[in-house]
Amino acid sequence: MKTLFVCTMLVLLFASGFSKVNNFQPSEHRPEETPYEKFRRQHVDAKMTEKLCNTEISNRNIYKLDNSCKETNTFILSIPAKYRNVSIIKCKLKHQGARKPSCQYEGRLLTNRIIVVKCEGELPVHFNRDLLPSESNDGEQL
Predict the structure, then answer these.
(1) Which of 7, 31, 37, 83 has a CB 3.0–4.6 Å from the CB of 119, allowing a cystine?
(2) Secretion signal: which residues (predicted)?
């Protein structure tokens, strides 16, 4: 779990300045995109709000491989210097089984969260989950 802690710190450092993804092209899937760039495109936006879920998920082309809608997508907002007390917008699909372009989401602001990500080469590549600080006391080293 030491890697998880290092990676969590990295995502905080890298995400803190990302209000927009570099060279972001709306509605365009870029095959040359690295896993880290994909993570940033799908999960990092300091200016995200609850009302922008539908627009941002569509513009960023965030869908499952079969073009069905993701059940949930989480956007990491402004990040403090520590890995705790993170604010996120969680976008949840309103109608299960919906397919592109009929994905409709309800956004919710969650504060005081701990984020857990998967890393490759010390860079975040997958948003795993978010926790409340009280949920992190299960022996998992964050």
Answers:
(1) 7
(2) 1-19
Ranges of residues in the chain with a pLDDT under 50 are: 1-3, 5-6, 8-28, 80-82, 142
Domain coordinates of the chain in residue numbers? 35-135
Structure tokens at 49: 């709000």
Residue 142 to residue 40: CA distance in whole angstroms: 21
Which residues does 49 contact at the CB level (< 8 Å), separation at least 6?
Answer: 89, 107, 109
Long-range contacts, 110-115 (Cβ 8 Å, 24+): 111/85, 111/87, 112/84, 112/85, 112/86, 112/87, 113/85, 113/86, 113/87, 113/88, 114/83, 114/84, 114/86, 114/142, 115/8, 115/11, 115/76, 115/83, 115/86, 115/88
Radius of gyration of the chain (CA): 15
Give 76's strand partners: 44, 88
Q: How far separated are the first and last CA of the chain, in Å rounded?
A: 7
Q: Environment class of residue 134 by beta-carbon count within 10 Å: exposed (0-12), middle (13-18) or buried (19+)?
A: exposed
**89 touches 115 (CB < 8 A):** no
pLDDT recorded at residue 140: 53
